[in-house]
Design goal:
This protein is mainly β. Helices cover 5% and strands 35% of the residues.
């Protein structure tokens, strides 16, 4: 699939790390280091703008290494970039650790996965079809 991208950052285009990678790492595009204090959140620019085709979205997800080692994650995970959005991709990062974390220019801050989606047409009804689960809620399927 081909997607138009405008790169106003000083970094190369995002790449897949391996042939089987689902997402590409996005890099911070900041003029000076940004410090995230514990429990602080900030919007971090990437300098990237994309044009997705109709029926696709880009999901912004945390990088597992940053989450595990440093406590840094994407606050609205996964963040969604709609096909009609043309603004800069910016990432809401939060520091869930007890220590300051410094984001340097070019640091890999998240991953982006492009995926297909469907839009639904709602059909109002008075009742829904029966299933084995029924109205069983959170944790219901894990009980014996």
């Amino acid at each position: 699939m081909k997607v138009k991208i405008v790169n106003k950052s000083v970094h190369p285009l995002p790449e897949y790390a391996t042939n089987l990678s689902a997402g590409v790492d996005l890099r911070a595009n900041v003029s000076e280091p940004v410090t995230l204090k514990p429990l602080e959140r900030k919007l971090i620019p990437t300098g990237l703008f994309i044009e997705l085709p109709q029926g696709y979205e880009a999901q912004i997800r945390p990088r597992s290494g940053l989450a595990l080692k440093k406590g840094i994650t994407v606050l609205n995970s996964p963040g969604t970039i709609d096909a009609d959005y043309r603004g800069e991709i910016c990432v809401i990062l939060i520091n869930l650790s007890n220590e300051d974390f410094v984001i340097e220019n070019g640091e890999r801050i998240c991953q982006m996965v492009v995926t297909q989606h469907a839009q639904v047409e709602w059909i109002e009804a008075d009742v829904l079809g029966e299933t084995e689960r029924g109205a069983g809620g959170f944790g219901h399927t894990g009980k014996s």
